[in-house]
Design brief:
By secondary structure, the protein is of the alpha+beta class. The chain has two domains: about 10-45; about 50-150. Helix content is about 40%, strand content about 20%. The protein contains five helices and six strands. The strands form two sheets. A three-stranded antiparallel β-sheet has the order 1-2-3, with no helix packed on it. The chain has a three-stranded mixed β-sheet with strand order 5-4-6.
Length: about 170
């Protein structure tokens, strides 16, 4: 490891410990040449995952795209940013466990919808309307009826049944 102060490649590790819940190793190093200390972090190198889009093109996986889609669906909803970050982290972990090089965009979309359905029904319908390309009010109505039936008619609000859905804001 090159010293950030004198640029010599001669150091020794004086301390190593786990960091970020075991996801990386923090190493405290001392340069043998100049005597200064610095910290490095070691992580597992992930293979660059690619997403297979609906039209067959392949693009690099970007965690931020998942988060942005969820943020749009959850706009003006009482959902903490930390919760969305946790969901995205879980989806990303799941993708890396189940796919080695390429993941279909359909898998990602279904995972996002599964989590949003559990988190907030309104956000779920908003996301589904874009992801599944709803064309008219009957598509919204069918989806609302489907999730109402699957949840035993319970809504995510204690004030009564959900209002007729409109187009996303």
């Amino acid at each position: 490891m090159k010293c950030p102060f004198c640029s010599k490649d001669n150091d020794r590790v004086i301390d190593s410990r786990s960091a970020s819940g075991g996801e990386m190793i923090r190493r405290r190093r001392e340069c043998v040449e100049c005597g200064r200390r610095y910290t490095t972090y070691e992580v597992i190198e992930q293979t660059r995952l690619r997403v297979i889009k609906k039209d067959g093109t392949r693009v690099p996986f970007e965690r931020g795209k998942i988060l942005n889609g969820m943020l749009k669906a959850c706009e003006k909803r009482p959902i903490a940013m930390e919760k969305l970050e946790q969901i995205v982290t879980g989806i990303e972990r799941d993708i890396h466990q189940n796919f080695e090089r390429e993941v279909p965009v359909a898998y990602i979309g279904e995972e996002v919808m599964r989590h949003l359905r559990e988190l907030d029904k309104v956000a779920y319908v908003r996301f589904a309307s874009v992801y599944r390309e709803f064309e008219d009010l009957s598509d919204f109505k069918a989806e609302v009826e489907r999730i109402s039936k699957n949840s035993g008619g319970a809504s995510s609000s204690a004030e009564g049944p959900p209002p007729e859905p409109g187009p996303p804001d």
